[in-house]
């Protein structure tokens, strides 16, 4: 039986368990003097039986699916002839792979005899595992379901137990996100450690030259590579700074206009329009930057006698800033709206004008939230990839001049990992180290932002 | 059979009860019968005069043809059941209703003979002359000092630090808060207790030296001790300021005011000396309200 049929069977069993559990509680209730004699409503007894039937069986199923492959793998190795088993581990795993691929595609007819034997063994093992899984899962479901069913008594606190079970189910779902994050961090961390074992961490963090070219052959021209991350981070900061110079004033003032001045009609038109800006895919912004804004800046620069690169930091930064405007404005709009009307009334009642009220009372009151929003926007700008891949340069110039081409961390990660790569050269592993650094920076910024927002939140209320 | 009969009886009893209640309601004079305001709404030395004031929220009329004077250095209390329009009326007196888009005010409202709804009039100096204290203490998220100095600063009353210090101190003293906060003038105003916050808001209002102070249920969010302090303060303030106060507490109105105005469903029913209103009201609606028959 394949897994989906098994799931369907389990679902049927669980539904049955619900009915049986509910029925038994009702039967017991009629003996004990009506439904009110029960500790909980009958459906809670049904739900409890359902959980008893379903959860252990699903747990067995999950564990089986995880460990199934490992065990079959081991058994398969045991069945191979001695001389194959004695091969070194890499070679052996290659052979096992071949066997598994051939078994999956059914093309083992012309293979060596030991492979044909192995394919037969593998298929037999997989079949047995499937049958055993079905049997065990259904057996566990019936057994635990029955056990739960026999426990039903009027005194059983089914409601509390069901509530607890739901709490645990919800908790495990939220753990999923955390575990994924931990998994990502660890995978990046281990590769970074491998990188730092080849390139000293100080060279990476403090080095001011970036040219990740490794010689493939010993006699090849092309240097030994330099992995100083400073030019990348300076480039990232430069582009993010330009983006924030565009996004913060524009976004903030748009938010102030929308929340303080705009009439309902204007607001209902402008707000969705701003949100459309947030809905444009970043890749579209990317070619807008590369094909429209960058040449425009270059030509304008040419007219006033400046030599501007066509991949200037300015172009990427400007477009990135425009992309972030709705982000800043919608976050600021929320915090400005959260400032109580009573504060505005207090200020207006003292005879201050609307702009005085906004400058002296509303903005200071909303400032923590606005700063938090801006920091979140900064970490978005730093992590933004597509616009800079298309509009920024690949050359790692260490410069603060926005008219020169710079590159960013994300651009370099993309370039290092695009195409076929060998995963034991520092050139490829550098991408993980960059990713780790970027992660640390944005995590720190987000942390700071949340802290700022939280610390000053109760200022008014 | 028995069960049905008892249900019928219960229904009958319920119906009778409803009927008596209806009769009681009908027995009260309907608001539409009221012709004008009884008592003495107008005085000789009026600081503010309101005549034929009608206020609309979009289509709905909230105030009907109200006329009232607030005399110089007088405390006028406005009482009445919730939703009777007393706060709306108070907010008309310094044009705070301008902040509500759908609100429309008609009639004549004057401050010392000057029409405050004159389109040419600037509301900024008006609100400096007619200050307002709100229901919920609303100190700005600034220090105690900056809260009080806020008004003088925006009106440019002084540029000198020493003068500003003096204004802050006198205002806090007048609001009887100085002794409690003099050692922590630079602590945030939001860190004070509810009663202290409300006195801070009063200090903030008097720091711009207004002529009239409007108070919109200034004690409704406070405990009895803080309320007593504010009431004491109102009595002291009436020496220098003209005060109009909206309150839900009839005892408060009786304690602090010279005259009391009773509002009912947007109409001004009766205005009389406070003592008369609470001992010998002229209008039966006023009597019904102060004796607690509704409200």
What key attributes describe this structure?
heterodimer, A: mainly alpha, MetI-like fold, 2 domains, two-stranded antiparallel ribbon, 2 strands, flat, B: 295 residues, alpha/beta, Rossmann fold, globular
Task: Explain what this protein looks like in three dimensions.
Chain A is an all-alpha fold and 461 residues long. Chain A is 77% helix and 1% strand. Chain A has helices at 3-32, 42-79, 82-85, 89-105, 113-150, 158-198, 201-206, 230-261, 264-279, 282-303, 313-338, 341-349, 354-383, 386-391, 409-417, 426-455, and strands at residues 210-211, 226-227. Chain A has a two-stranded antiparallel ribbon with strand order 1-2. In chain A, helix 1 (3-32) runs antiparallel to helix 2, helix 4 (89-105) packs across helix 5 and helix 12 (341-349) packs antiparallel against helix 13 (354-383). The radius of gyration of chain A is 32 Å and the shape is flat. The model of chain A has no long low-confidence stretch (mean pLDDT 86). With 295 residues, chain B is of the alpha/beta class. Chain B has a single domain (35-290), classed as P-loop containing nucleotide triphosphate hydrolases (Rossmann fold, 3-Layer(aba) Sandwich). In chain B, 39% of the residues lie in helices and 23% in strands. Chain B is built from 11 helices and 11 strands. Chain B has helices at residues 2-27, 86-92, 123-129, 144-154, 161-174, 178-181, 194-206, 224-237, 250-256, 274-279, 284-290; strands spanning 38-39, 46-57, 60-71, 75-79, 103-111, 114-115, 130-133, 212-216, 242-246, 259-264, 267-273. In chain B, the strands form 2 sheets. Chain B has a 7-stranded mixed β-sheet with strand order 1-11-10-4-9-8-7, sandwiched between helices. A 4-stranded antiparallel β-sheet of chain B has the order 3-2-5-6, with helices on one face. In chain B, helix 8 (224-237) links the parallel strand 8 and strand 9. The model of chain B is unreliable at 1-5 and 22-34 (pLDDT under 50). Chain A binds chain B through residues 263-264, 340, 342-353, 356, 360-361, 364-365, 459-460, and chain B through 94, 96, 99, 101, 123-128, 131-132, 134, 136, 138-142, 150-151, 154-155, 188, 190, 201, 204-205, 208.
């Amino acid at each position: 039986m394949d897994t989906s049929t098994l799931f369907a069977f389990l679902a049927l069993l669980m539904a049955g368990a619900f009915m049986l559990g509910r029925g038994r509680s009702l039967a017991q209730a009629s003996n004990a003097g009506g439904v009110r004699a029960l500790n909980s409503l009958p459906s809670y007894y049904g739900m409890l039986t359902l959980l008893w039937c379903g959860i252990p069986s699903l747990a067995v199923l999950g564990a089986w699916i995880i460990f199934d492959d490992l065990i079959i793998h081991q058994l398969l190795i045991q069945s191979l002839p001695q001389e194959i088993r004695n091969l070194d581990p890499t070679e052996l795993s290659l052979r096992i792979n071949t066997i598994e691929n051939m078994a999956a595609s059914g093309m083992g007819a012309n293979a060596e005899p030991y492979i044909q034997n192995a394919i037969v063994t593998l298929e037999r093992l997989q079949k047995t595992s499937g049958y055993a899984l079905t049997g065990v899962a259904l057996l566990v479901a019936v057994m635990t379901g029955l056990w739960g069913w026999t426990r039903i008594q009027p005194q059983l606190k089914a409601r509390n137990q069901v509530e607890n079970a739901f709490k645990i189910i919800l908790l495990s779902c939220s753990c999923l996100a955390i575990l994924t994050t931990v998994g990502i961090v660890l995978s990046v961390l281990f590769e970074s450690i491998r990188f730092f074992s080849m390139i000293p961490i100080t060279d990476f963090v403090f080095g001011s030259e970036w040219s990740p070219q490794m010689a493939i052959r010993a006699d090849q021209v092309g240097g030994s590579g330099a992995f100083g991350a400073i030019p990348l981070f300076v480039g990232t900061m430069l582009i993010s700074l330009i983006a924030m110079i565009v996004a913060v004033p524009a976004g903030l003032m748009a938010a102030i206009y929308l929340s303080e001045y705009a009439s309902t009609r204007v607001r209902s038109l402008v707000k969705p329009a701003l949100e459309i800006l947030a809905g444009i895919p970043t890749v579209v912004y990317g070619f807008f930057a590369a094909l429209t804004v960058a040449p425009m800046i270059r030509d304008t620069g040419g007219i006033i006698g400046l030599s501007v690169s066509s991949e200037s930091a300015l172009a990427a930064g400007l477009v990135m800033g425009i992309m972030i405007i709705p982000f800043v404005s919608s976050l600021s709009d929320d915090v400005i709206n959260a400032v109580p009307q009573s504060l505005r009334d207090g200020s207006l009642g003292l005879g201050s004008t609307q702009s005085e009220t906004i400058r002296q009372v509303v903005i200071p009151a909303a400032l923590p939230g606005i700063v938090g929003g801006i920091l979140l926007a900064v970490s978005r700008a730093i992590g933004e990839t597509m616009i800079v891949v298309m509009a920024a340069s690949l050359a790692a110039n260490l410069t603060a001049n926005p008219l020169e081409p710079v590159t960013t961390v994300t651009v370099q990660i993309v370039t290092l990992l695009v195409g076929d790569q060998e995963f034991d050269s520092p050139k490829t592993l550098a991408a993980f180290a960059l990713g780790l650094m970027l992660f640390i920076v944005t995590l720190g910024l987000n942390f700071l932002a949340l802290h700022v927002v939280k610390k000053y939140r109760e200022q008014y209320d | 059979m028995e069960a049905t009969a008892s249900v019928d009886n219960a229904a009958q009893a319920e119906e009778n009860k409803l009927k008596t209640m209806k009769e009681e309601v009908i027995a009260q004079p309907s608001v539409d019968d009221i012709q004008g305001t009884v008592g003495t709404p107008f005085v000789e030395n009026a600081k503010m005069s309101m005549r034929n004031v009608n206020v609309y929220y979009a289509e709905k009329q909230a105030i009907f043809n109200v006329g009232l004077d607030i005399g110089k250095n007088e405390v006028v209390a406005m009482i009445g059941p919730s939703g009777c329009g007393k706060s709306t009326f108070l907010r008309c007196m310094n044009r705070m209703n301008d902040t509500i888009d759908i609100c429309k005010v008609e009639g004549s409202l004057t401050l010392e003979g000057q029409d405050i709804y004159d389109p040419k009039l600037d509301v900024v100096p008006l609100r400096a002359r007619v200050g307002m204290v709100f229901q919920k203490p609303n100190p700005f998220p600034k220090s105690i000092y900056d809260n009080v100095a806020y008004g003088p600063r925006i009106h440019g009353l002084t540029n000198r630090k020493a003068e500003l210090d003096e204004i802050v101190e006198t205002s806090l003293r007048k609001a009887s808060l100085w002794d409690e906060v003099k050692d922590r003038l630079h602590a945030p105003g939001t860190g004070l207790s509810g009663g202290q916050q409300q006195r801070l808001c009063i200090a903030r209002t008097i720091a711009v030296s207004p002529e009239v102070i409007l108070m919109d249920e200034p004690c409704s969010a406070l405990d009895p001790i803080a309320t007593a302090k504010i009431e004491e303060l109102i009595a002291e303030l009436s020496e220098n300021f003209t005060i109009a106060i909206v309150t839900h507490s009839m005892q408060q109105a009786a304690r602090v005011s010279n005259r009391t105005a009773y509002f009912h469903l947007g109409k001004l029913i009766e205005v009389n000396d406070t003592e008369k209103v609470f001992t010998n009201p002229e209008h039966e609606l006023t009597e019904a309200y102060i004796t607690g028959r509704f409200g």
